[in-house]
Fold these 2 entries.
Entry 1:
Amino acid sequence: MGNIIEVKNLTKKFGNFTAVDNASFDVKKGDIFAFLGPNGAGKTTIIKILTTLLNPTSGELRINGHDPVNEEHEARSSFGIVFQDPSLDEELTAYENMKLHSVLYRIPKDIRETRIEELLKFVELWDRRNDFVKHFSGGMKRRLEIARGLLHHPKILFLDEPTLGLDPQTRNHIWDYMLNLNKKEGITLFFTTHYIEEAEKVAQEVAIIDQGRIVAQGTPAELKQKNNAATLEDAFLNLTGRKIREEEAGAIDHLRMRRRRFHR
Amino acid sequence: MEIEIIYILWLRQLKRYFRSKSRIIGSLGQPLLFLLAFGFGFGSIYQKAGEGNYIQFLAPGIIAMSILFTAVFSGIEIIWDKQFGFLKETLVAPVSRLEIMLGRTLGGATVAVFQGLIVLVISLFAGFKIQSTNMLLTALLFMALIAVLFTALGTAIASVLEDMQGFQLIINFLIMPIFFLSGALFPIEGLPKTIAIITKINPLAYGIDGLRGALINSIHFGFTTDFLVLGSIVVVLMVIGSYLFSKIQI
């Protein structure tokens, strides 16, 4: 099977700061791909570039055979995404959020309703379909976002720290869904996480990024072997060092902090 | 261009507005205060100066003010929305940015017009009298023009701002002056030269003028001038707004 994502010599600069430095990697179709790296390594930046939210400074990209810079429409139709920060409309109900997505992705009218029902049942939110999203717990919101991301039957599902801040029950629950989906529908899963043991458990392929550079790529077993490590987490620490990363807070972090204060 | 996409994004803004009763009531506080404090506070001075009933003069200005603020805020919301909101969901969808911008702007503008209508009804209770009811449609037209103009302005500004810190700057150095120097609170005849020039380049002045013309039959620039000035600024701002919006990177 071919590659569904191809990244060649990708570089992204913000002024003098190089967030992504000549990164190259491929993701095979149908794979579960874990993208790991310390804070500020460039994971989210790469996801934003792949999902057309940010333009690269240089490099070549293919998403399902399409260039996200020049063929953004085709590229956008190929993937679904669960963002690190929620992107649901909290003033709408779960059903309305799904409905809006189905219109934006031009899902034919006659199959909209059945598909929304199917997916909401799949993430066990069908009984809560007419409740406002603002009353949902963190785990329920994640599940709804995943259901929404799958509504248009994407070839790739991007998940930026999908299990962050969730309890082990919800985490397992969500992973069961996604693994099942990957097996049944052959959807490629591309995810980032800080829980390395989670990546070790589910990922078929892992890429590790540090300071904008891809420092390793391979199966979890290969990475452990190469780095003489007992676990993937040890391999990760060997590759990226044990120093805690100082990340300068940007505009987004200030906003994020304000939002937390605001919502408390 | 797909109407269904623009429609559903427009509908979303309306649903959000009508569902948050506390926000509707909250945003009525400021116009109400202005109407009552200024209206009754300056009423007798205004009368003594031989200008007539101040509430009658003031109400169209306060209606325009509530439209101005609601419209600008709904545009500015994008700053917040870029990171934490629904905007990202629309930006990764296979739809054109123009459709998203139009849906949002028209939705925000419709909400702003509703807000203006509520203030109009309230001002009737404060003693405001509409001169001729068959000019109500003209009044509605000017309310819509003000609403679209300032929603597009808010969208354009929010598309280039990175965080909320620039927001205070915009409110204090752009929106407040636009309001205070628009003739909303005082007649624009016989002003000192500098202020007169500023009001002349202030689009809100033309909106309020048209609104006053329609509601109380008193006009300074004339309907045609008001309409042409507002109309052309709306077109320019919509073009600039959609361009800047299409360039948003997150």
Entry 2:
Amino acid sequence: MATCIVRSGFLTLRDCGNPAATKCATCGRPVCSTHLSASSGFTVCLECASQKSTGEGVPESENYDSDWAYRYRRHYYGRGYVPIYMGSSIYDDYDTRSFDSDMNDTALDQDDSSAASFGDS
Amino acid sequence: MGVWQAYRALNAEQRRVLKTKQLSANRPIDGIIQFLQPLAAYDRVGDKARTRFGCGAGIGIVLSIVAGIMAANGALPAAIGVALFVLLVAVTLLLAYAWIWSRGVDLSNNLRQFMLPVLSLFREDIDPKQKVHLRADLGSPTAKEKLQKTMDPYAHGAYYKIVESFYIDPWASAEMPLADGSLLKWSITDHIRERKLRKKNPRGKIKMKTKYTVKTSVDVELTLRSDAYAVTAAEGERVKAGGKKKAIRIKARHKRQDLTPLDPMVFIDMVAGIYRRATPTQ
């Protein structure tokens, strides 16, 4: 059975991993019932729904539901916060710090140690 | 939703919080949010309704006086005039009672403008199986029991009488076990200066106003698992390193010129600031 691929969390992200209930009508990825957007009529995942929200400012809400939380999360990440991703699935636009732990400065130095050739840009 | 419907939707425990303004919860995060949401919904409609009750009572007083004068002067037939006067007085008393009642069960806006947003945002970061300890004082920040001292009146410039009062309101603290094995502890205390100012305008009329300055102290302690994160401490930051855990404690002060709740982003920035410096070791 497919599992939900929505990255849950705010400070740190992890794979939801719950059994998927349906596929997101926008991205086609499997999504569980808790990560479907109520504002879309439960057809779109919260991540896709948050992308559709407009406006530059902090999202406003009266009931602070999951739709609002994911909109706020997107807004907050847009201010420069890069969350730590603790899941195992493929890279997405939130996931950049997972590369940091693999990044080895000496490997970069070794790359730079050779003289640049005309093939280098 | 009307105010009465919102009030009736509350259970006995939620009504007790409305009455005492004291919240002490020790339950999983989803349970806390489910508990707070109806309270916030009530408080939102309650604030609007209180304004309507107050305005209605004020208009009712004016109309009652007018009806009374008209009945006394014979501008209206006696029976109609008296009936109208009695009706308006009754409606005014009812609205005044509703206004007083709704003031008594009003919660601090910190609930719906700070606490509920923060809990909703961190909901998926919090371990759903463990209990969150949350304590909050949702009463007025300038309640009598929070008064520390009142200074002697003094004059300054156009103001012939200025009275300053100082309040301390340690209104929230919490312990949240996070899903990554970390523990987030935080507390918030408001230090409030209230200034009641009086002056006479050029026509000799006395004008009064009240001004507030609020300094909010936010304490955040995040205990990270040493086997999960390496942390670089920022300048002036306290890092307590134990065997298996590292506790990072930061404090911040935020000043504003009114009693509006602290922006949740100030708090989120503090916690996120610690995570920014954390590097996963696995």
